[in-house]
Structures
1.
Amino acid sequence: MDFSPIVVSSRAPLAPRNEAFSPRPDFQYYRTVATKTVPKPKLQLLHSEKLAKLPWLIHAFSTRHGGVSRPYGGNALNLGFTKQDTHAAVERNRALFLKKLGITNARTLITLRQIHSDLIHRVESPPEHSLSGDGLITNTSGLLLAILTADCLPIMVVDKKKRAIGVFHAGWRGTVKRIVEKGVGEMQRYFGSDARNMIAAIGPGVQTCCYQVGEEVRQKFEAQFAYAAELFREVKESDPVREKYPMLFLSARAPGHSELPVNLFLNLVEANRRQLIDAGVPAKNIDASSPCTACHTDLLFSHRAEKSITGRLMALAAKRRKNSAHGASRG
Ligand SMILES: [Zn+2]
């Protein structure tokens, strides 16, 4: 047996790059230098440009790289307690993730038992019992608010004047229940926030390119939103025979009366962007440019693309503690 993994001599041709994956300059693909080990991708985080401008805020969206988990290929940074992974690996990954953000203890990390609801909790200290719900808001420094996802959208909302923060979990169910719209409302109620001072970031999730849904989902949106039609895209299933021999079918049926099945795709990012705008958040303050999880399983976890065997990404936001060299922590 040959255990040497990838040994590429300096004269060997480049391994063909899979064009389905989007290459990133800071990403380690095979190199032409001689090596006996596959380089471990470093822990890599995504940030919103708009949120990064706030010095009092710590925020990040994790990627799959730079952890110690084994079940999802390589050294995965799985941050949720999944069936396949060990508790110890997840705890270690969480510590690595926080360390990368300059946070040295995880005692104030607050996660939820996420249930696709519109339940939002205002927190002033780490809760004694685990909370069920899909939103967390606070204006207390040092609390690390976290949402776990693998296709659903993690959404951060920040009031730059009152220095209040909110994190929300929005799949299609939570979106139909208007979780993010309600989240803005709760921040106004508790913190006296003005939506015009809010900045929002919609993190990585499954996008309209990959988010196929059933007709029943469209009906639920149509019952709730006047703009529902704009959130769905219909794609006729392609038929290779018809594409190859269009003349054969020309007279068989009038155009637009194809019997080919129609696939329906939901734009969940746009749905949540519209809710933020309806709630009063200026469009220019909304960052909605995150990559699609299902398109980028080289970088992110995707429940759909990886057929449920996948890890969890974490979206984390916190108000920096004053007088602390370690950001949100006291060391
Ligand atoms: Zn996609």
2.
Amino acid sequence: MNKRDAQKFEARLIEERKRCLKELGQLENEELMINQKEASGDLSSYSFHMADQGSDTMEREKNVFLVSSKGNDLYEIDQALLRIKDSKYGSCLHCGKEIERERLEAMPHARLCIKCRQEEEKESRNNRHGESLISDRV
Ligand SMILES: [Zn+2]
């Protein structure tokens, strides 16, 4: 992937990151942090503050539940931004091949190519299937 394309995806990832944070209700804090990082030009020190949120235990447990999927998106986005910085962006983390361009357009934080992703999904579906069989009986 050339630099110009990587920059294009980087801009999209930063937008997605903001949207994600907004959904998590943390935009204000985090944006302040991003602005500070951007000012110093240091993307590598992006940090992941989920665990710091919420002072009381109930609140924290609720937050953990709410952010588990969004928080994971955010993590993937951060990882993709770090890969751009290391010039590794756009390669499948599993097989090392270039990730299909359409796939990156649809999901800029994709870390696996379509083939590896499908295999991963197949595995997790099998696992979920096992669990649901049990809960159906309960
Ligand atoms: Zn792959």
